[in-house]
Amino acid sequence: MPRLDQIRFSTLDLAPIRDDGSPAQALHNSLALARHVEGLGFERFWVAEHHNMDGIASSATSVLIGYLAAGTSRIRVGAGGVMLSNHSPLVIAEQFGTLETLYPGRIDLGLGRAPGTDRYTMQALRRNRSSDDDDEFPADVAQVRALLGPPQPNQRVFAIPGTNTRVPLWLLGSSLFSAQLAASMGLPYAFASHFAPLYVHEAIRLYRDQFQPSEALDKPYVMLGVPLYAADSDERAEYLATTAFQRVLALLRSQSRVLRPPIKSMQGVWLPHEQDAVGNFLGMALIGGPRKVRARLEVLLEQTRADELIFTNDMYEPNDRHRAFEIVAQLRSA
């Protein structure tokens, strides 16, 4: 089992918008968090593409990555991820080739298959897609990879900037399909266990068993998304986590997903079946004080042998978010 001090820690942010805030505030908070975790020694800071969601400000993902990279100095910055079904592979290669050109050695490109939105918005984003989008994803990934690689004989289309920048690619997913594709292409694999923990163990097993070495990677590399709600006491953490509970509940009810302040109790807010659904959604969440979070982390590493953990955090107050990452960073160095 890997030890805590051997594991890379990273952050995945959605630039959450508060019920009393604005997108501008959310984006500034995202940069403040990136700077904070950079100071804590985290490996990377990723943002995710979502559209038509009133509580998420990271829709223009590559633009936000440029803002974050400009405001930090060391930490890797990237997409966790870009939903490739929404975009032309050439455009993504140009965007991330430009980012890599401006911030060499600091840009990651995680690619996802889902649209990250509803079907109406997906049509508005890219109207020329066929009905067989899933079948196109492996070819689109291969095209992005080629456009970011060295020029080939008889090549007619180039990403400029982009060609030969070799931006590191990751495959993201919450299904067995993405695990098998990442294995066949020899790419690092990030599993979305922060919202879909059901298939995590089977997906990791498939990925490792079927992995084919490539120029990018000689052995499997697994990153897991983990919801983090750490505080100085168990009671404080459970209180702060009610913001996340409310947000997932709003998702299940198709309601506004803006961040809401924590509440003393969820009793009377959710129905029993909704409580179970939220619990399943956040099945891998770390909720508690330092001792409880450490115990949960050690079990998680024993069960998955993950190479890296990428933490999500939807606490309402920026100071509470910062403190949660301080706590987990201290556990790694203890």
Automatic annotation (TrEMBL):
**Among the entry's GO cellular component annotations, what is one?**
cytosol
Superkingdom as given in the UniProt entry: Bacteria
What GO molecular function terms would the record report?
Answer: oxidoreductase activity, acting on paired donors, with incorporation or reduction of molecular oxygen
- Annotated Luciferase-like domain residues: 8-307
**Pfam families on file:** Bac_luciferase (PF00296)
Q: Which family does it belong to?
A: To bacterial alkanal monooxygenase alpha and beta chains.
The name under which this protein is listed is Luciferase-like monooxygenase
Species assigned in the record: Azomonas macrocytogenes (Azotobacter macrocytogenes)
